[in-house]
Amino acid sequence: MDHTFPPLQLDPAILLEIIQVQTEIARCGLDLGQVINLVCQHSQQLARGCGAVVEIAEGSFMVYRAASGTAAGQLGMRIPLEGSLSGLCVTSNQSLVCHDALTDARVDKRACQAVGLRSMVVVPLSHGSQAVGVLKVIATEPGRFDARAIAILQLMSGVIAAAMYHASKYDIDQLYHQATHDAMTNLPNRAHYFDRLRSTLALAERQRHKVGILGVDMDGLKFINDTYGHRAGDAAIREIGQRLRQEVRQADLVARIGGDEFMVLLTDIGDQQQIEAKVEHLVQQACRSYHFEGNALPLSVSIGSAIYPDDGHHIETLTELADQAMYQRKKSRSKVAQD
């Protein structure tokens, strides 16, 4: 069966929305991670899917580097390049459609079940003449996509390709770095964090050791922005990221998740007492005095923690527990400040 489609004339309203996406992307500068996330979200809406994914080919795997809708919980998932529709899309450099994942021999059925999809459309993401990943939109029902969806995703993949070119004109390794790191802090981004978290938890399960997960939120960033300007606020975010990175081991990971939020992955932790001591140390180091352009900026963070497997086995559970603990600490600190 031929799963490709001839070119299609799109509705002007769709074209206008894609132009609006390009305008929004222009505000992202060279942060390829933000571009990928933005295109992913808009592609899902424009192609009328229930979820969307940007996968990057890394060695023998396709890695979920952006995910929206029903696929959002699978961010960081790895599927074998060989034996998957995404892998075939990369190796053939052609747009492909799966009308029913239950009967299509080209798909990775385990991955399809994990995401909960029955049909999908995938188009290649090209850097120069080389396909380096795919843009994919999925649906929970079979036969969801047609020539219209292919045409939309081909245009949206071109938007990502343009960002890839401007972010890294020649070096593919640099391109991967742009896609997996935050432009402001040069720390791993949200997608990289969840990729690493999945592999770290899988290793911890096999080797039977504990993993610490820390949720970090800056206190008072709005005050800094309002009082000293956004340049000072950006400098404060970079400083906090650098301080966190300096205070953990090389094997650990500090990632900027977005805005004033960070996550810290402690790859081998002893017990609750040890992780609490680490949290207090990080808070103390983050709160050290910092001057920017002659102004003393009040740096402070709230940190919550969760331990695998003591507090849970699933990424969603552990992340939620760390976030809840962090917000509880923030609430307590705010109450103390008011008293």
TrEMBL record:
Signal peptide: none annotated. It comes from the Bacteria. CDD domains: GGDEF. It holds the Pfam family GGDEF. SUPFAM superfamilies: GAF domain-like, Nucleotide cyclase. InterPro entries: DGC-Regulatory_Protein, GAF, GAF-like_dom_sf, GGDEF_dom, Nucleotide_cyclase, Rev_trsase/Diguanyl_cyclase. Residues 209-339 form the GGDEF domain. PANTHER family: DIGUANYLATE CYCLASE DGCT-RELATED, GGDEF DOMAIN-CONTAINING PROTEIN. NCBIfam families: GGDEF. This is Diguanylate cyclase. The lineage of its organism: Bacteria, Pseudomonadati, Pseudomonadota, Betaproteobacteria, Burkholderiales.
